């Protein structure tokens, strides 16, 4: 059984190998990734309550594969944002979260 | 031309399943040493490259195997030459040349194909750096044996000439690092993640999820903290390691010399008697087994049933031993391997009862996935963080 998460538990987030540039740029632009994601969740819950988003969003999404086309269609609006904020910082806070739940003990067991 | 390949290599007694640069190759694990090329006329290299693995001829110059020219896999099997195979229960995999030669051959074949796809041409020289994970049967896996097996790959470079008709391509294979783990153990990674690194899903889990009424969007994340007793039934050995999430529980590593190969060998005499042949090879028997329309099919099944039951009983005994050792603290018994397909009708009911009694879930991998679980697990392992960390530590130690 899947254990429910408790406060303080790790959640792991990993980007896809073919993650769209839109998503990757957005991630790289955050100084506190987890807090930004928390804010997105808060917005979603405020608007729609707690629900399994997988039942409501299409599997094929307009931005999912090619962020660039979307950017082009928006009269450069997003592109401007992107250029304005991108150089801000490379985020360090990402690394501990994306770590795939593998700790030293796991590694030692394979030696 | 230079490449870096990740290789997940399952050198089985009957079949060689190997992921090279993400491509799965399945070939009979046999080869034969020959004196020269079989072709007298010119062959177009392009026509060979497409199905190179089915007509693979290489010349090996390696510090770890007898130098010479070899037919590999299917081409060797079909050649009528004297075959080199791995003897069920007799050969030590880390000592013989077969796994070295066939591994080098397959890696070189993919390198040639990759150049051809990317460049539309055929180069004279290719160099391949390899990171590889492979396995030894648990009964053969000791620290010394695995270190020796690793060294045979990492000694090098190995020079492999791939013959495309009369044309030759030289492939220099260098193993940057090789890790040898006990058979079946990496399968824990294949249960969790797919080739892309996402949680595995799909019909591989259908029966399991339905039987235990698990949630609809069931996927491999289920296994990430589970204690799994593996039962990997091969031709010559069966492995019963226990893993917990991404961890290998060393104290429970256990294997036994049982498998489908023993049952087939036992059945063969009786089968030959029934069909009035003094002698027929194991391969013939296997072909008849696989073909329900063959006139001797029911005879083959009949003769195999009792020997298979014998093997299945031994396997159940070993599983019980493991359960006792682990105090029944197992979440899932996971059964796979080529032998699990033949034994399913006998083993599945026995295991189901045992699992109900001990309150353990049974995941009997469907036949279409059963054979490649080890190769998939090795492919996931060699691309994973644990391999990376092991490699780093090994490099530091030098």
From TrEMBL, chain A:
Q: What domain of life is recorded for the organism? A: Bacteria
| Acidic residues bias locations | 97-111
Disordered: region residues: 90-111
The name this protein goes by in its record = Uncharacterized protein
- Organism, per UniProt? Brevibacillus choshinensis
From TrEMBL, chain B:
Name of the protein in its database record:
Actin-like protein N-terminal domain-containing protein
Q: Which organism is it from?
A: Brevibacillus choshinensis
């Amino acid at each position: 059984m899947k254990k429910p998460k408790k406060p303080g538990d790790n959640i792991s987030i990993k980007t896809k190998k073919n993650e769209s540039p839109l998503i990757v740029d957005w991630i790289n632009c955050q100084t506190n990734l987890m807090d930004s994601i928390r804010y997105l969740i808060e917005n979603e819950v405020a608007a729609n309550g707690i629900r399994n988003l997988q039942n409501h969003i299409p599997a094929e999404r307009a931005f999912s594969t090619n962020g660039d086309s979307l950017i082009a269609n928006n009269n450069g609006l997003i592109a401007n944002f992107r250029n304005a904020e991108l150089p801000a910082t490379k985020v360090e806070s990402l690394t501990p979260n994306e770590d795939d739940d593998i700790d030293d003990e796991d590694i030692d067991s394979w030696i | 031309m230079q490449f870096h390949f990740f290789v997940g290599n399952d050198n089985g007694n009957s079949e060689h399943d190997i992921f090279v640069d993400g491509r799965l190759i399945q070939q009979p694990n046999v080869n034969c040493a020959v004196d020269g090329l079989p072709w007298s006329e010119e062959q177009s290299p392009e026509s060979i490259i497409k199905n190179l693995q089915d007509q693979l001829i290489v010349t090996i110059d390696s510090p770890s195997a007898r130098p010479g020219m070899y037919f590999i896999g299917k081409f060797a099997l079909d050649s009528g030459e004297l075959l080199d195979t791995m003897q069920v229960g007799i050969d030590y995999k880390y000592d013989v040349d077969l796994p070295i030669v066939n591994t080098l051959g397959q890696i070189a074949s993919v390198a040639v194909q990759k150049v051809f796809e990317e460049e539309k041409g055929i180069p004279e020289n290719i160099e391949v750096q390899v990171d590889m994970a492979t396995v030894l049967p648990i009964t053969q896996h000791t620290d010394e044996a695995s270190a020796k097996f690793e060294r045979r790959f990492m000694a090098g470079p190995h020079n492999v000439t791939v013959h495309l008709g009369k044309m030759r391509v030289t492939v220099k294979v260098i193993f940057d690092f090789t890790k040898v783990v006990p058979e079946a153990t990496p399968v824990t990674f294949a249960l969790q993640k797919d080739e892309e690194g996402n949680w595995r899903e799909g019909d591989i889990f259908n029966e399991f999820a339905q039987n235990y009424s698990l949630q609809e969007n069931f996927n491999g994340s289920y296994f990430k903290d589970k204690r799994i007793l593996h039962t990997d039934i091969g031709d010559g050995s069966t492995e019963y390691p226990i893993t917990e999430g991404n961890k290998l529980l060393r104290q429970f590593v256990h294997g036994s010399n049982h498998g489908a190969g023993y049952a087939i060998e036992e059945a063969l005499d009786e089968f030959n008697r029934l069909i009035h042949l003094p002698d027929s090879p194991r391969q013939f028997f296997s072909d008849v087994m696989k073909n329900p329309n063959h006139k001797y099919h029911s005879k083959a099944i009949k003769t195999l049933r009792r020997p298979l039951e014998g093997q299945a009983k031994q396997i159940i005994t070993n599983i019980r031993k493991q359960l006792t050792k682990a105090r029944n603290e197992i979440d899932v018994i996971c059964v796979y391997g080529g032998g699990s397909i033949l034994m399913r009708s006998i083993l599945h009911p026995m295991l189901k009862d045992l699992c109900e009694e001990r309150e353990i879930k049974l995941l009997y991998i469907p036949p279409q996935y059963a054979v490649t679980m080890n190769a998939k697990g090795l492919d996931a392992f060699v691309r994973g963080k644990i391999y990376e960390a092991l490699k780093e530590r090994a490099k530091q130690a030098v």
